[in-house]
Amino acid sequence: MKNIKYTAKIKRYNPEKKESYWQDFEVEVEDTLTVLELLMYIKDKIDSTLTFRSFCRSAICGSCAMLINGRSGLACKIQAKDKIRNGVVKIEPLQHLPVIKDLVVDIDPAIEKLKKVKPYLEPDPKKVPDNLKSESLVSPEEFAMYDKQTDCILCMACYGQCNALEGDAKYLGPLQLTKAFRFIMDSRDGMDVEERINLVENSGIYECVQCQMCLAACPKDIKPAEDILGLRRIAKDVGKDNSATRRAKFWFQTVYETGQIDKYNLPVASLEEDGEVIKENMEKEFKERGLKEENFGPQPFDGIQDLQNFIKKVQKEVK
Ligand code: SF4
Ligand code: SF4
Ligand code: FES
User: Fold this and answer.
1) From the CA of 174, how far away is ligand 2's center (Å)?
2) Which of 172, 213, 283, 303 sits most deeply, having the most CB atoms within 10 A of its CB?
3) What are the tens digits of pLDDT across the range 257-273?
4) HSE of 12 in the Cβ direction (CA atoms, 13 Å)?
5) How many whole angstroms from 61 Cα to the centroid of ligand 2?
6) 8 A C-beta contact, residue 80 and residue 143
7) pLDDT tens digits, one per residue of 85-102
8) Quick one: CA dihedral 211, 216, 217, 218, positive or negative?
9) At 14, which helix (H) or strand (E)?
10) Residue with CA at minimum distance from ligand 1 atom 2
11) Is 79 in the same domain as 183?
12) Ligand 3 centroid from CA 174, angstroms
């Protein structure tokens, strides 16, 4: 254990003046400090007005999530010395949530979104007894399908790192979708799978860009991006017809028939009437480029049969 010197660069917010600003704190501290201990040191020794949330200091309560060098994480789990870059550790509040003061964010908007997915079991009377004398059994195999997801501590680290939320504040968010997946997989749940899918399909599962940032952010190794793919598969299995499933079907069909994606007809196939404008614009552009109408969409190429055989083989193996 030794002392090291560096700068803690902290983004602060003054709610009275509605003003945010960066403040540098020069510290000389033990090299064993977590980021949370660093913040406590600064609050104790340098500036008592510095505000942040923490409670358990053991990566359990989920209250100390923040951005450390631009990445979401729990301040109590991350070693400050591992985050020093050119003598500086940069600390900011989580993204996508309103800041209340300094590093404290208001998590209510994310909790309101969570409520939309009904994050609780609606007990199936056939599975869940209404008395305490008998048990509601879950097999180890079934529990393994959502065991990890039950570890979520609602820290919002994934939410604060989600790229889909950058452009669409209505997007539900990774932890909310993971929770939806978890209850769909639970055989004790009495709510219809289709009903659960209806709760998420228009505000989440197809907007996720699969950047995987939520996986990297999660201190509990939960994988919301994978659960979102699971939700897409379930939506397809329950036969939901929407722009995304139509798009996927058309995409597959044209690749199978021609070996190429039919970008010209794809907008109408997936968006129906709303896709007409996109198609008209493309038509205009193609004509200006001197393309003949029969070449607007793809044509099968020699050897397409080989590709089709390959696709059939893969489909067989996947089944
Ligand atoms: S994979 Fe999806 S949910 Fe996860 S951070 Fe990226 S956009 Fe958000
Ligand atoms: S999924 Fe992981 S990162 Fe997201 S809220 Fe839950 S514990 Fe935190
Ligand atoms: S203080 Fe509880 S998770 Fe960090």
Assistant:
1) 8
2) 172
3) 888 888 888 888 877 88
4) 17
5) 11
6) no
7) 999 999 999 999 999 999
8) positive
9) strand 3-14
10) 208
11) no
12) 20
Pairing of strands 88-92, 65-68: antiparallel
Residue of minimum CA distance from atom 8 in ligand 1: 162
Backbone angles phi, psi at 251, to 5 degrees: -55, -50
For residue 5, the CA-to-ligand 2 centroid distance in Å is: 32
pLDDT range class, residue 205, cuts 50, 70, 90:
confident
Statement: residue 294 has pLDDT above 80: yes
Are 211 and 262 contained in the same domain?
no
65 CA closest ligand 3 atom index: 4
Let me know: does 264 contact 279? Beta carbons within 8 Å.
yes
Asked if 41 contacts 31 with a C-beta cutoff of 8 angstroms, the reply is no
- Asked if residue 158 has its Cβ within 6 Å of ligand 2, the reply is yes
- Answer whether 118's CB lies under 8 Å from 183's CB: yes
With the most atoms of ligand 2 within 8 angstroms of its CB, the residue from 68, 156, 220, 228 to mutate is 220
Based on the structure, what is the number of domains in the chain?
Answer: 3
SS3 85: strand
DSSP 81: G
Identify the residue whose tokens are 């489909």. 315
- Cβ count near 176 (within 10 Å): 26
Among 86, 104, 122, residue at a domain's last position: 104
Tell me the pLDDT band of 204, cut-offs 50, 70 and 90: low
Which residues does 98 contact at the CB level (< 8 Å), separation at least 6? 105, 106, 109
Q: What token pair was written down for 289?
A: 């480029």
Q: Of 205, 212, 232, which is best to mutate to test ligand 1, by the most ligand atoms within 8 angstroms of its C-beta?
A: 212
Domain containing 250: what range? Answer: 243-318
Query: Considering the entire predicted model, what is its pTM?
Result: 0.80
Cα of 254 to ligand 1 centre, how many Å?
28
